[in-house]
Amino acid sequence: MRVGEQLAYKLGRRCCPGALARWQLNSRFGSRFDGHRAQGPDERDGPRVLVRVDEFPHYRAWDEPERFGTARFERFHGIMADAGVPYLIAVLPRVSRAPLSPSGMSLADPDSRPLEDEEIAVLKRLAGERVSFALHGRDHRTRDASPRRHSELCGLDRAQTEQLLDGALAELAGYGIEPRVFVPPYNRFDAGQWDPLARRFEVVCGGPESIGLMGFQRTPQRRGDTVYLPSYAPFYGQAAEVRPAITRTIEHARGMWVPVVLHWGWEADAGWDELERLAELVAPYAVTWEKLVRV
Q1: Where do the domains of the chain lie, and which CATH numbers do they carry?
Q2: Helix axis angle, 273-282 relative to 239-252, nearest 10°?
Q3: pTM score
Q4: Which of 26, 168, 206, 207 is the one with CA 20 to 30 A from 259?
């Protein structure tokens, strides 16, 4: 069933993204979260938008510092802050060299570096600027070379999963960051890894790649004491793709949670104009992630 849903999603996005958006909003998307109300904009005013941003430091910052380094992220943050958009940033405690190569993936001796002073300084500053933090794995190194199976977690047994998570959390704690949200690298984790994730985080995110592993799920949904929060197209993508969907959602999904995922590296490559337009549009409806965690 999960494989079929993954295929249906891919076909829907390719052939009829407008219909896909309506399907998500009308059937499985835009959940009122089991009747709970958010602490945010009044229901009559529009949706409650949760903006997630992947990731800082960028997982390719070691290999391409000019393209994915701190200076370009600062430009992204400046746009969001100037528009008044709170967001969640997925944080890496380490940065890999050649993260798309499985070589060097040993937990004991990975080919990765700790955060640099400049990166640490940015994270400490963001904490006071309406930015929330999520753990984004340990160093974003894939365990599988195939683009269809990129994942830092898939294939690890329970003990290995717990070792990776606890090690990454300990490194972030050393910088004063204690995330309550988890964003899986490449949006992939095994369904059997849900329990160790749920024991450590109040919110576990997902994306298009999660469908083949977790199924196409209503979002957000409570699973025990933890919230599963996947995001799908057209709310997952570049700002130019997300903006038309948000415009429609403002009229048709009032009072509902809408998780939006952006990648600041994509916006940097595309230029900043579309991001500026999206930030201006979404600002009145964006809420901090603490609003969701407190529900």
Answers
A1: 2-293 (3.20.20.370)
A2: 20
A3: 0.88
A4: 168
Sheet strands (E) in the chain: 48-56, 87-91, 94-96, 112-114, 131-135, 181-182, 203-206, 221-223, 226-230, 257-263
Q: pLDDT digit of tens for each residue in the chain (295 aa)?
A: 877 877 777 777 544 444 444 444 443 434 444 434 444 455 457 899 999 999 999 999 999 999 999 999 999 999 999 999 999 999 999 999 999 999 755 555 568 999 999 999 999 999 999 999 999 999 999 999 999 999 999 999 999 999 999 999 999 999 999 999 999 999 999 999 999 999 999 999 999 999 999 999 989 999 999 999 999 999 999 999 999 999 999 888 778 899 999 999 999 999 999 999 999 999 999 999 999 986 5
Query: Bridge-partner residues for 195, per DSSP?
Result: none
Alpha-carbon distance of 147 to 221, in angstroms, equals 28
Q: Can you tell me which residue has the tokens 């997925």?
A: 90
